[in-house]
TrEMBL record:
Residues 18-82 form the Glutaredoxin domain. Keywords: 2Fe-2S, Iron, Iron-sulfur, Metal-binding, Redox-active center. The keyword 4Fe-4S does not apply. GO terms for molecular function: 2 iron, 2 sulfur cluster binding; disulfide oxidoreductase activity; metal ion binding. It comes from the Bacteria. This is Glutaredoxin. Belongs to the glutaredoxin family. Monothiol subfamily. The gene is grxD. Coiled coil: none annotated.
């Protein structure tokens, strides 16, 4: 793991309000967890940047160290790590993900 990949990940997280590090792309997710994460974000109507970790091994390994979270996908909102698809689903079902995005000014308040 290089400092360069950490810097690149940090830049991606900083430059985008909502970032999903995932396997595949938003149009062609490569795993069920990434697909579920995309479905949640699309349903909420929030603009987000998808980063395909399968295209870059240093990002794939680096994101796990960056967040200290072992699995992918990983969601970041306004630079803060939110969680993986299970946490996203729990937050979504409880209305917490919508509230977080509304609080950050990324979707209209429900």
């Amino acid at each position: 793991m290089t400092d360069d990949s950490q810097a690149r990940i940090g830049q991606i997280v900083t430059d985008n309000d909502v970032v999903l590090f995932m396997k595949g792309t938003p149009l062609f997710p490569q795993c069920g967890f990434s697909s579920r994460a995309i479905a949640i974000l699309d349903h909420l109507g929030v603009a987000y940047q998808g980063v395909d970790v399968l295209q870059d091994q240093s990002i794939r390994q680096g994101i796990k160290e960056f967040s200290d979270w072992p699995t992918i996908p990983q969601l970041y909102v306004k630079g803060e790590f939110v969680g993986g698809s299970d946490i996203m689903m729990e937050m979504y079902e409880a209305g917490e993900l919508q509230q977080l995005l509304a609080d950050k000014g990324l979707v209209p308040a429900g």
